[in-house]
Amino acid sequence: MSAGERELIKRIRESVGTPGRTTLVGIGDDAAVFEPVPGLGLITCDAFVEGVHFRRDFATFREIGTKCMIANISDIAAMGGFPTRAVVSLCIPAHITENDISAIYDGLLDACRRFSFDIVGGDIVSSPRDLVISITLMGAARRDRVVTRSGAVVGDAIMITGRIGGAEAGLRALTEGLPQEDAVLKTVRRHLRPIPRVAEAQAFLDVATPHAMIDISDGLGSELWHLADESGVGVRIEASRIPIDESAITVAEKIGCSALDLAMGSGEEFELVVTIPRSEMSRTVEHMAAVTGTTATYIGDVVDAKEGCSIVGSDGSREPLERTGYEHLGGVGKGGDEE
Amino acid sequence: MSAGERELIKRIRESVGTPGRTTLVGIGDDAAVFEPVPGLGLITCDAFVEGVHFRRDFATFREIGTKCMIANISDIAAMGGFPTRAVVSLCIPAHITENDISAIYDGLLDACRRFSFDIVGGDIVSSPRDLVISITLMGAARRDRVVTRSGAVVGDAIMITGRIGGAEAGLRALTEGLPQEDAVLKTVRRHLRPIPRVAEAQAFLDVATPHAMIDISDGLGSELWHLADESGVGVRIEASRIPIDESAITVAEKIGCSALDLAMGSGEEFELVVTIPRSEMSRTVEHMAAVTGTTATYIGDVVDAKEGCSIVGSDGSREPLERTGYEHLGGVGKGGDEE
Question: Are residue B238 and residue B201 in the same domain, yes or no?
């Protein structure tokens, strides 16, 4: 290890700070040591590659770091849990400076602080060409509050949090270099700084009995297929009910595409799709608004597996839902999610 | 996700199999869910990059997968723990086939089976150019049996398991294309198929009170510096006591380099360096041999920080230990370990 590398790691250890009291050994040993959190343990991991998942001409390193961590927080939220601690591996090509690495860490730590958990370990290695940020996030959930994507029941109402399409609209606006008007700026912000729905997942659990939950990281169409496949059911959603972000509609007009298509394929938005008994719909909508300020919208129903996954248009026509998800950065590469 | 990607993930889920009963949700959801293991939790991560940490002309994908997992198991062993579950992120450039990915997984799973733990989650993403295998391994340790690298005490004896130099000799033999004689083949095997010292770490704990423990992944010289820095001590080792692998000595002769230099810089050997009270030395050596068949060798002493880290030659001359560690694949790149 060179003097420069040692200095960098010292800098990172300082910015990461002293971990909370449940972490007995943090960065700096062969492994981190911690007191297990009460309840069930959760673990998820995601890798983010420059040119596939992020572009440095679209976002600062700090924004990139935050967004990578938030994608993992969203996965923990979608199980009904809270994040507890993270480890981070960075693969660094020669053109990345130590200040760049510090900026990535600053971004990662912004997300950690917002959700009160620590980075407890990591690895920094060189790579010949590609910059890779690989995060593993642990979490915890109460034993009776874990929700998988495989429990959807025929007859369930399908609910979605917030409004979708903004993240994809923002990415398209950046890619096509749209003039930075208000609506455009809003969608760009949505793309660069998504919000994981930790509190919203808990709100579902507080007043309803969610049967299945998944976060939208690869687009609503794709996630509904995942949920249906894993639950052994079909889904039928109504196009007119899908809550599309208003700024996304404006951007869709500007670039001349269908706002619905844009919304259905919008990835990394991190809204939640949740199936609950129909009888719990109205109290869920009310509680969600009251506690989180976020909308919960009914978009369709869980149906028999034989029906497959379909979307009903406003004219009553029914089309199969497209399986293909979000292609990160519009086709530079694809992110296939094993989890 | 394309049909091919879905098929691949199905194949991986099948080869990973049903996880043990403490894993409630494995691959296939937003996060894995598990019962926390009694005792303290451990977590470590490492990223491995083609051309930096491994070469496909030197090893099969299966061997590469196994070795990457073993590097992580070694980190858990060096804390006094046992591996419990892993998550794996793969960044896959276009030239890697689905069979290659399956072979990597087969290798990862070989290591998992040998140490009785599961892969419970992962992520497969595309990368523009570099192949990256990123592993996070969790472990568990009894509360009274965690050993850090920061507890070495002045006066401790420094012990090392097994014999070193073989891994580096094997890598050099491959790099220089040495004819595949017996000694060469032995070192190549040592390079490609290292063994993590899980049982040996426990043997230390059974009969001694290890104050500090670290695994050799970046070379003995470098690891002794880490241990000294973190413990706030110095170390003085004796060159003549260092147990150098016999085949490594043969290879060193063939390539015309010093066997000692080769051994001191030999990385990814995964032997353990442990400091214990001097009074516990002989019973440790006996117990280690009896229980594991592995040697434990005294190589020097923990000294005051003022003395720094030094190596005493057979002529009594004393030189500072070099800080620089192992350069993976002989300088193609460097692996700086944050942990």
Answer: yes
H helices of B193-304, in order, are 198-207, 220-231, 246-255, 259-264, 281-292
Of B5, B75, B123, the CB nearest to A339: B123
Of A24, A78, A128, the CB nearest to B51: A128
Separation between Cα atoms, residue B274 and residue B91, nearest integer Å: 35
Query: B125 and A90 in contact by Cβ < 8 A?
Result: no
Do residues B96 and B11 both lie within one domain? yes
pLDDT in tens, A32-84: 999 998 999 999 999 999 999 999 999 999 999 999 999 999 999 999 999 99
- Beta-carbon separation of A43 and B336 below 8 A: no
d(CA A112, CA A157): 33
- Residues B161, B117, single domain; the answer is no
A117 and A161 co-located in one domain: no
Q: B45 pairs with which residues across the strands?
A: B136
How big is chain A, counted in residues?
A: 339
Query: Cβ of A9 and B76 within 8 Å?
Result: no
pLDDT at position B143 over 90:
yes
CATH of the domain at A198: 3.90.650.10
Write b or e for each residue in B211-240: b if 16 or more Cβ atoms lie within 10 A of its Cβ, otherwise e.
bbbbbbbbbbbbbbbbbbbbbebbbbbbbe
Given an 8 Å threshold on Cβ–Cβ distance, is B1 in contact with A324?
Answer: yes
Mutate to test the interface with B, among A29, A229, A337 (most CBs of B within 10 A): A29
Tell me the three state secondary structure of residue B286: helix
Co-location of A322 and A189 in the same domain? yes
Q: What is the pTM of this model?
A: 0.94
In whole angstroms, what separates CA A21 from the centre of its chain?
A: 28
Q: Which amino acid is at A76?
A: I
Q: Does the interface ipTM go beyond 0.90?
A: yes
Residue of B nearest to A11 (CA): B338
| Nearest beta carbon to residue B52 from set A47, A128, A136 | A128
Q: What is the pLDDT of residues B218-261, one digit of tens each?
A: 899 999 999 999 999 999 999 999 999 999 999 999 999 999 99
CATH (domain of A136): 3.30.1330.10
Q: Give the neighbor-by-neighbor strand order of the sheet with A40-49.
A: B23-25, B32-34, A40-49, A132-141, A82-92, A118-126, B335-336
Residue B318's CB: how many other CB atoms inside 10 A?
12
- Tokens 């259905």: give the residue: A264
Cβ within 8 Å, pair B76-A324 = no
Segment A72-97, tens digit of pLDDT: 999 999 999 999 999 999 999 999 99
Domain final position from A114, A145, A176: A145
Angstroms from A269 CA to nearest CA on chain B: 15
**Do both B309 and B174 map to the same domain?**
yes
Using CA atoms in the order B327, A33, A111, A286, what is the torsion angle rounded to 10 degrees?
A: 150
